[in-house]
Task: structure prediction
Amino acid sequence: MLIPYDKLSPEALRGVIEEIVTRDGTELSDAEDKIRQVLRLLQQGKLVITYDPEIHTCNILTPEAARAAEAE
Result:
């Protein structure tokens, strides 16, 4: 399921991006550049937010990867 980034409040959007960027163990203090980059790519349509209702998890993927995941 695609979640339009612009339908999320700024706080919720930042929380989603922050959680995903720090999943790999990146410290939040080191993640600021990544967060800004992901937000810019979302705004450019190069990334999308997906939500899997079965496992209650968001991910940020390229549109192509999101379509492939939905087709599975």
